[in-house]
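FORM 7B - TANDEM STRUCTURE REPORT

SECTION 1: FIRST PROTEIN
SEQUENCE AND TOKENS:
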Amino acid sequence: MKKTDMSIMIQKVKATALLPFCLFVFFLLQACVNTEEREDTPTGNFEALWHIIDERYCFFDYKQKEYGLDWNAVYNKYKVRVSDKMTETQLFEVMCDMLAELRDGHVNLVSSYDYGRYWKWEENYPKNFSDTLSRRYMGTHYQIASSLSYLVFDDNIGYLRCATFENPIGEGNLDEVLSYLSLCRGLIIDIRNNGGGDLTMAERLAGRFVQEKTLVGYLQHKTGTGHHDFSEMDPIYLEPSSNVRWHKPVCVLTNRSVYSAANEFAVMMRSLPHVTIVGDHTGGGSGMPMSSSLPNGWSVRYSACPMYDAQRQHTEFGIDPDVRAALTDEATAKGIDLIIEKARQLLK
């Protein structure tokens, strides 16, 4: 398949169909590539894993620049730890250690007994979120619509907690939520600890805050097995919803545990003029994940399609807030969430 053919196809895609289209492109590309069959041995499975990542992972160039990732050197480093006499558990450990060199929360090795993961993108940083404070601020009389919880603070500022994009959020849910909050002078959208989910849900929510078709980012897809084989950057536009929309100021609260689709939601919202991102740097995760199988039946998930912000910058390692705020032990002990309070101050 020619690169130009793939580029023409992707230009016809709207933002709301990004994930299904990327899946289509991915499987179409695999049909154009001959993959070598490998034996179901520790050595064969190791080789299969390394080559799958080598041919299909999408952030090699970026991560080489960021921290010197050399995938060939990674091969040499871990190859010597593999032997056909090793156990399954030992092989799984070596493979997970190798994948951790990518520093990517979207990269996972999955067996019947374990789930290899890289979580240092959030584990090595302050949480800047407290369940205790969340319960204090929300009380017991908040409303619930699907995965959205919402209420009005006593200063007439709306508060919308979105803890995940994994569950469906219907248009009717959003109509009811925004209508209920319509008399508020400003709105806080708290996505702290939102690890992502369905990108379509993130786009659906973001579409309620855009008033005209707006460029919010770019997308590429692999066109071959080389580390540099990518399409041109194709623009991603956010279309305004035809239902109830919000026109007043908005603060989006973030922390290091904002990842994947939630990270993309923060990226999209940052492009809007009446939105301020408040809190901590997000966790990132801007590669659309795909999966492949190894000879022994284990599956590996990896980032396959890179996404960028409206300035064509990578967001794989997250984005900075517009206004930085953090929790402190002293304020937390007094029952004060300094990130929420900073947003309330800005909206007043």
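SECTION 2: SECOND PROTEIN
SEQUENCE AND TOKENS:
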Amino acid sequence: MQQASPADLPLAGIKVLDLSAYIAGPYGCALLGDMGADVIKVEPPEGDNLRKYPSTLASESRAFLGINRNKRGLCLNLKEAAGHEILLRLVREADVLVHNFRPGVPERLRIDFATLSAVNPRLVYCAMTGYGAVGPMARHAGYDQVLQSMTGMCAAQAKADGPPEVLYGSVVDYYGAALISNSVAAALYRREKTGRGQAIEVSLLGSALAMQSARLVWADGESRHIERDMRSGGITGIHPTRDGHLYLSANTPHFWRALCGHLDLPELAEHPDYDSVKKRAAQAAVLVPRVRQALSRASAREWAERFGQSVPCAEVRPVEDMFDHPQVEAMGLMRPYHNPQAGDYLGLAQWAHFGDAAQTPVGEPGAGHGDSGAGRGESGTRRGAPGLGEHSEKILSTLGYTASEIDRLRQSSVVQ
């Protein structure tokens, strides 16, 4: 698909200061960068703690690389007066600031909304917290799996008569990141009409509940403890085949009939006991063994190819298969990047396409790790995750600091 140039992306010209760490805040800023914003990741001298997370990469955390694309890196000690002054200079030119400090910390560091909006009234200021700014848990540390456990997600994930289970993949963090980018974009739109910025608060608690809006409905007169999940059950789910596993979804009458036809089970297609999702779920003990017996005749990949467009399905694959999956390549969803520590790598590219609706091939399918020119970011295209303080000198020079001043700031450990 034809990608818009960086200058044509919707947030081109917007400057974002990312003072957050871990996943939700930084990835929210990465999403803004994906839409064209110029994002500066401001890290303390010890760096974002995500850099230190376990990784099979020797020199940099895989998670850090994946979370922090399309950013420049500045290492800054905000506890020093000179470091605070640098941040104020950045704020004067910025459009957005995002942080995930606990309530009370921004005031101690003198980077709260009241202080910074006095410097730049047009600043959109987004705070990502664990539990919000008020209430008995406001100052508690909030993390993805802590909120999963608190809000019922782990309980809902549990197998029948089994213990609660975590949903791996930091789903609350990633959804919180999407809410950050959505909220910031909305605030920027409002600023176009009013001329003023505003404070935004996004919480992991709110994100975890927003993800479960279909469960969070309690009608008058209902018992507190009822089934609140919306799983269709029955045939829908993962099934074993002769080789590998296959996910099937056949909830509509059309897809149910198509599935029965492919599996040589025509007698089930119009049977009155199985002609709705609800009925098929109730008869799962009868239907699932027959479906699985039929699926055992071929491999998951063969069934997926056979079903094609007629039955929604997917062979269960490892994530590594996505690097060179033909549909991923056709969409241009992966691209080469570069990081000073990790070197060249492939990572997620644009998740949305802005610009011309015309679809044309982009690049060469399967562009490998050696094709790193686009990834280095020096041509004004896209950047890999920055090294700690990688762009400090260039950023400070654009703020008016001389080479000798920057050298003194480095020697005093204000910047790296």
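SECTION 3: OBSERVATIONS ON SECOND PROTEIN
The mean pLDDT is 91.
Residues 15-211+386-412 form a domain with the Rossmann fold fold (CATH 3.40.50.10540).

SECTION 4: SIGNATURE
Preparer initials: ____
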